[in-house]
């Protein structure tokens, strides 16, 4: 209240009466204006257009006693503004790659004017009005960047970002080596990174099929192939450095103290499972065709132990010593092929071929022949259509000493008749051991029917077997001397037939 002379009345004053909806707790409407009692920061979001004056009273106490009071008035003008959002300033927090920094403006909301301040002390030229500017700072250090959207309008928005420019002294480096030369898919990584000023605080490894944050991890690969291992290190000042290494790894296949067996005069490959990508050096090399080959041929005349050191230098020297002993023998198997009934047979006749003798540690194999159905059987029954040679290879285990035997089966033409079919005209079954049994003799007959009749036409004997003869008896009784008739029908090996009738004299 002011008196007539223009001077305000002295305190105390009457309390202000607020008009709804305003109150001391809600001065401008909307989100109420509030004050942080420790920092004094005023925050709020009004929803009423107008001009507002806000007074702040600060009281200072010492030891619980009020010693001073300070008052300040603030004027707020609330207008109808567009929605502005300065958003985010996109740039690394820590920059170790130089003094020039590119800033990306993430503002939105329709703003078209921007005011950048790059926080450099002692100059007013650290500004820009570009949307996303670049700026070269005068030196390393930490700077607070400010971006104002629509700076000359009542409605504007401001965002801050702090960045630090530092001189990088960190360099990533590492080496890889095999943890065990018998397992080249398991690698040991050794960190060789360095920082000449500070110290490294973090390690980030990646090799495609795995990752690690250890300083010196074990890298396990899936199989042989080409891999890239990367290491990124972070220094105590936040600077980073990335290093990559690409290499090819081949899986070791190591067989130590291997023993091979060889027959004297032969040769053998001593390392079939070797890897041509490795380096080999075999000794003694005198009986090898190539002492630097991964799988050389050896032809020793006596038992010899070969030694090699083979290496893989794709990552690190890794050498393995391997011994291969070649045990030399001179003991070929001793066997032959036996033919039954003979090596000379008639056309159409079968012959049995048998390997004799046989041994358990020898493998016998008939050389391929269309007449043989099973080349591994020790006995063969064949019917050659012509003169044929058969062969068997015998191999002794484990030396490999070998022997070969052959047999020729000669075929003769069949004469299906006399004299190759012979029947005596008399015999003497008197028990003296000579000519006591009447046999049909032939080497060309495959099938036969032979019958004998007495003078009255009664059959006293018959057979289909060349090995069965007549002993001069009938129904268990010895017959007296007499003349008997016979009938003979024979089929020979070549299919021809022979028949004959005649008389036979029984003499006692």
Task: Explain what you see.
The chain is mainly beta and 508 residues long. It is 0% helix and 48% strand. The protein is built from no helices and 44 strands. The strands form 15 sheets. The protein has a five-stranded mixed beta sheet with strand order 6-13-12-9-10, with no helix packed on it. The chain has a five-stranded mixed beta sheet with strand order 37-44-43-39-40, with no helix packed on it. Strands 19-18-21-22 form a four-stranded antiparallel beta sheet, with no helix packed on it. It is rod-shaped. The mean pLDDT is 88.
What are the salient characteristics of this protein?
single chain, 508 residues, mainly beta, five-stranded mixed β-sheet, 0% helix, 48% strand
What is the count of helical runs? 0
Q: Give the overall shape.
A: rod-shaped
Low-confidence stretches: none
Counting DSSP E segments of at least 2 residues, the number of strands comes to 44
Radius of gyration: 58 Å
